[in-house]
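so im writing up the methods section and need the Oxidoreductase protein record in one place, dumping it here so i stop losing it
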Amino acid sequence: MALLADLQAAFEPGRVVVPEHIHSRHRSDWGVALADDEQPAALVYACNAGDVSRALEICGRYDCAVVAQGGLTGLTGAATPVDGCVIVSLERMRAIEEIDTAAATMTVEAGVALERIQQAAAEAGFFFPLDRGARGSCQIGGNIATNAGGNRVLRYGMARDLVLGLEVVLADGTVVTSLNKMQKNNAGYDIKHLFIGSEGTLGIITRVVLRLFPATTSECTALCAVSDYDAVLAFLAHAKAQLGPTLSAFEVMWPDFYRLALEAHGMRPPLDENHSAYILLDTLGTDTEADQARFEDTIASALDQGLIEDAVLAQSLADSERLWTLRGLAGEFSRVFTPRIDFDISVPIGDIGVFIERAHAGLIAQWPKARVLGWGHIADSNVHLSVSIDEQPQPLEAVERTIYALVREYGGSISAEHGIGLLKKPFLDYSRSPAEIALMQRMKQALDPAGLLNPGKVL
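--- predicted struct ---
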């Protein structure tokens, strides 16, 4: 095969893997797998942007598709290969090139694990706020390519808000280096935003300049119970007003999620199980004594005003971790709640309470034994649902259409923080207008006219 021969000639021995020797883990992205009768043409381990450029230039000559891979922790199949493609793995691009303490930036290669970035920032006296459960294995290139979110979006924003500069390789092998360190740079179009969240369909991210923040020295955590969703909104407004910029997380759990979390972890209930919703409140600050006093006053005044029904405050780091363990149940669903169909959606914050009620009612009307768990980063409008139907196989398409039709009705988004990939592509027009999709297609045509980069994803 001429393509394989050219790739092998262009790279050192061991850097190009032939189809029969490609490890099975490269065939799927979080369970969305290549069909058994299909296989990639080759796997290339890139070590720098030049390697990525060389691979893309060779693949372009043969009209061969290219799929970039990193930690393979995505949740929509965005890094699943296609038949006959060349996989370009960035996992060997693991250098933390620079921490600029004056600019408060870190320059890294795309294959650096998120946890390493967090640790390096802490060692330098800074804080990098992007976080997710797969922090030890997910890689920053993929985090940026999917515009990852997480628990700290309320205070620090999405992944896109943490990026100052990028290096990207285009479909024709052109390397675009824009490793800007400045927060203010209005010199023409801010092209990095073309690639953030594009899931490798417009270019392959190879290096990133990240924003760092002052290290925090205090953390306050509380679990609160409320009577209904209106109380959730009232308490959020109260917390924002009282806690200001220290408020970093406002996580809501509906009762079924809370009860399953207690059961799964064998925990005694920190609060009674008869409330309508539970809120995990968290602050990060730099003045331990003042932050704690303000936090306690905020909870006390919320109780006095009837905004919350009950609360328990963490008295130690261990207490805080224990409360966060409840919210971390989602990472253990494969053990305690399966089979299931998962949803990562956004709904205007004022409508979330009614949305949850209608979603539950709509599912029960069709499948009376359906189980529905709800939780999410409500302060940034992000809701997660997990649905289990008492049928085998799970009626995936029917459940998705039920939920996504409701999302469309409320003007929400079918993807809050996980991307579109393969799994959500059929529903893109539920959240984007024909004009928006047409513009996306024009952008794709301009940057990748042959359609070789991650084909079949997003559009």
